Amino acid sequence: MPSNKYEVSDYKIFDDAVSVSNNSSESEISDSTFKGPAADQAREYYDKIINYLSVISDNLIHINDYFQLVSSNYKSADQQARKVVTNSSESPYLSLNSSSKSYSSSVANKSQQDFINSIKDGAIESYKKYHVLPSLTIAQAILESGWGKSAIGNNLFGIKAGSDWTGKTQTVGTSEYGARGYYHINDTFRDYDSISDSIEDHAKLLTNSRYDSVRAATDYKTACREVQKDGYATAPSYADSLIKLIEQYNLNQWDNITE
Q1: pLDDT by residue (tens digit) across 99-124?
Q2: Which of the pair, 57 or 5, is modelled with greater confidence?
Q3: What is the DSSP letter of 152?
Q4: In angstroms, rounded to a whole number, what is the distance separating the alpha carbons of residues 71 and 66?
Q5: Which residues contact 127 (CB under 8 A, 6 or more apart)?
Q6: Which range has highest mean pLDDT (11-20, 80-89, 132-141, 144-153)?
Q7: Residue 216 and residue 238: Cα distance in Å, rounded?
């Protein structure tokens, strides 16, 4: 605000303006009606405010357009990913391209009970050696591979090939979950010579200090929640899906084995 101090007489114009506005029609009042230092200063600030509001209004329009575009892109990506998952007959956590050279595994065509029986011993052995609950191992194998039908190169657990992996690999399509929902990407996964190699490698992966809480779990519910919390999978319902499988197929019957 201006530092000038005006005399009371300088503001007489406002009294005149009020008188004019009270005794004249609106069309008779013009800019010349309001005169004086204070009026000039007020008009200057008024014009600046109008300009600022105009700029803000224009920016809000651009911001709104931007968010509309972003929202549209997110919705499109989410719908596409959900379509991939819905149309896939395999696990929603691992959607394969039909061109995968090792699309199936030695357990791909087994019944559900036969699938469980074929990996049960390996899961029990993993518990004895690495302290990973058998129920968790079996449930993850079911969920990640769609009962063996989506086991990339005998990879029952959807384990990706990081920079430290020196074995065989396959690059295929998969669904991930992020801030914008499900989305589809291509990623590289480990390729094993046998199912037993896959089970062994899964247990070794969980010996990483990142999964200490998983190995420390003494009940399947805790183990399932901890493996999700520790970042094994991105799907928000991952732990609940594992728990449901364990309870539906009584997989925790092997958790009380003697080491």
Answers
A1: 344 445 667 778 899 999 999 999 99
A2: 57
A3: B
A4: 9
A5: 133, 134, 137, 254, 255, 257, 259
A6: 132-141
A7: 19
- Alpha-carbon torsion 216, 221, 226, 228, what sign? positive
- State which CATH number among 3.90.76.10, 1.10.1760.20, 3.40.50.11260, 1.10.530.10 fits the domain covering 112-254: 1.10.530.10
Is beta strand 168-178 parallel, antiparallel or unpaired with respect to 181-191? antiparallel
Span of 6-15, 123-132, 142-151, 160-169 with lowest mean pLDDT: 6-15
Instruction: For residues 91 and 100, give the distance between their C-alpha atoms in angstroms, rounded to a whole number.
Output: 15
**Quick one: which of 211, 219, 228 has its CA closest to 247?**
219
Of the candidates 249, 153, 140, the residue with the CA atom closest to the CA atom of residue 192: 153
Predicted TM-score (pTM) of this structure: 0.58
Give the DSSP letter string of 102-138: T---TTTTS-HHHHHHHHHHHHHHHHHHH---HHHHH
**Closest C-alpha to 100, from 92, 90, 109:** 90
Query: Which tokens hold the place of 148?
Result: 């063996």
Q: What's the token pair of residue 178?
A: 């992020």
Phi, psi of 105 (to 5 degrees): -130, -175
Note the pLDDT tens digit of each residue in 178-204.
666 776 777 788 889 999 999 999 999
